[in-house]
Design brief:
The protein has a domain of 146 residues. Strands 2-3-1-4 form a four-stranded antiparallel sheet. About 19% of the residues have low confidence. The protein has 229 residues and is α+β, with helices and mostly antiparallel strands. It has eight helices and four strands.
Length: 229
Amino acid sequence: MPTYLVHGFRWPRPLIRIHIILQNLDDAAAEWLMAPATYATLFENFETLYPELMTSLPSLRFIEQYDPNDTTSKSQPYAYVCDQVHEVSLGVDVDEVRGKGLANDAWGALVELRDKIAPGEKVAWFVVVNGDIERWAPPTVGLLEGSAGGSAGSGVSQTSPESGGSSVIRDDTVMEQTKAQPKGFKKWFGGRGLRKPESSKNMRNSNMDNSIKSDPGTPPPLPVAGTAV
């Protein structure tokens, strides 16, 4: 159960939520600022908003107080924004730590940062107890959107019958086959139209000619009644 002696100010939880919403910090969890992704996101955001102040606060940290036996609260009413953090293992001489003092530029930058994000809060030394620094952090908006995007991408395949792209492919294929069909018929019949079947008269005359050519000594057959010779 880490215990910290910190110098800084309290950042009320409602103001933390408002800051994260107004700055569109999708990767920050307002209920637990000690989460690595949240710390990195907020630190980068502060460097963008207050570059001059952050130059004097290179070791700025966010510390949470937490009691694992408290099962009724999802988060504490505030977090701590600190320019100095000392972890207390067994004991510490508070006067010795405080006697090291603070640089004037760091003190002024911390006070000005307090005025911007938590006006009215006191800048002082605090003892903060955290029962579980690696506690579960709620998912951020960025993480939820990333999960939703991944599940949507694993949906219906682009080549499946349900997809719009496949229907276009099928339609184009049918159209091309339809356009190619007349060419196939033309090639099959050699570019000529369909021939009409021969009449029975022409067929009989053709048979007679073939019989005469095959056996010249045989007299021609008698004409059929009603047929001109």
